[in-house]
Amino acid sequence: AAKQEILMLQSRFDTVQAAVVGKVGEYEGSMKDLSSEMKALEQVMQKILEPLTSNIKELGRIVEDLRARKK
Predict the structure, then answer these.
(1) Alpha carbons 40 and 50: distance in angstroms, whole number
(2) Dihedral of CA 19/25/27/30: which sign?
(3) Tens of pLDDT, residues 33-64
(4) pLDDT of 70 over the 90 cut
(5) Measuring CA to CA, how many Å separate 8 from each of 17, 47, 60?
(6) pTM to 2 decimals?
(7) C-alpha to C-alpha distances, 30 to 26, 40, 41, 55, nearest whole angstrom
(8) What sections of the chain are H helices per DSSP?
């Protein structure tokens, strides 16, 4: 009976271990996907940041010109 109990416990342990390994694998895949998405977002931000900054500076100049004309 003790041997059967040990075998059952070993089987349960193997099942739990397989489940944990599966979850870790899923987590790793999710992290790789997230990393890829973050790199893509970084590239997009790099492309739009300079034109956005330039447009903001130009708008600032236009506002200053309009304020100067009002005076």
Answers:
(1) 17
(2) negative
(3) 999 999 999 999 999 999 999 999 999 999 99
(4) no
(5) 14, 59, 74
(6) 0.56
(7) 6, 15, 16, 37
(8) 2-70
